[in-house]
Amino acid sequence: MAINKDSNAYTLTFAIIMVVIVGTILALLSVSLKPMQKKNAKVKMKMDILSAMMSTDEKNDLNRGNTEAKFDELIQIEKALVLDMTGAIRSEISGKAVLDVNIRKERRDKTLAEVDKNYPLFIGKKNGETMYVIPVVGNGLWGPIWGNVSLGEDLKTIKGASFGHKGETPGLGAEITQGFFIDRWIGEEISVAGEAVKFEVVKNGSGSDQTKVDGITGGTITSVGVQEMVNRCMKPYVEYFKTL
Fold first, then answer.
1. Disulfide check for 240: which of 87, 138, 212, 222 has CB 3.0–4.6 Å away?
2. pLDDT tens, position by position, 197-207
3. Which DSSP state fits 76?
4. Is residue 30 part of a domain?
């Protein structure tokens, strides 16, 4: 019996078969690539943490190929801490398992109460000095923003930072990733007399004042997002540092 390739039944059957075949291929690819995706996400997280500890010139030499080696060299984690929102130690994690704490995912989870969110603390050394790297997450104009802020041994002075975003406007809000904006945070102190300060990102040129940072021209909403992100995320760590 000849098959009528012009019939609706043939067209529908052919379409169903193609959907099943393509769907199966995509599912297999998704499963097979998942370990690689997770590994790439970890490498990117390590790059972001390292960037917060490095000068602009050092960041230029950082790439996916040398991230693992540099991370092991600078972030020699024997144990790492996860704090709660009050700064109390929730758990001590051995080795690099602290990287499994995904605060960006927790931030997006609307079902997760604030009291249940985690605040990981990365501790490393650079040129013999202990540095504390604090991850931060928030919202910009068009989507999530995030970053890492590193402190020196005095537990309050910002030594470096790195910021990232998902979809901020190029030339405007997206400039939070640039060195000129990051450098404006260096030297600021996250606490005074043991109490968390409230940073203000300004656009009137008064950023040289204590606790003020010059924002980005035309990127006001993203700048304010960074301000809110840093102010909110620093509080648990300031409370923890009081105990040291």
1. 87
2. 999 998 877 77
3. -
4. no
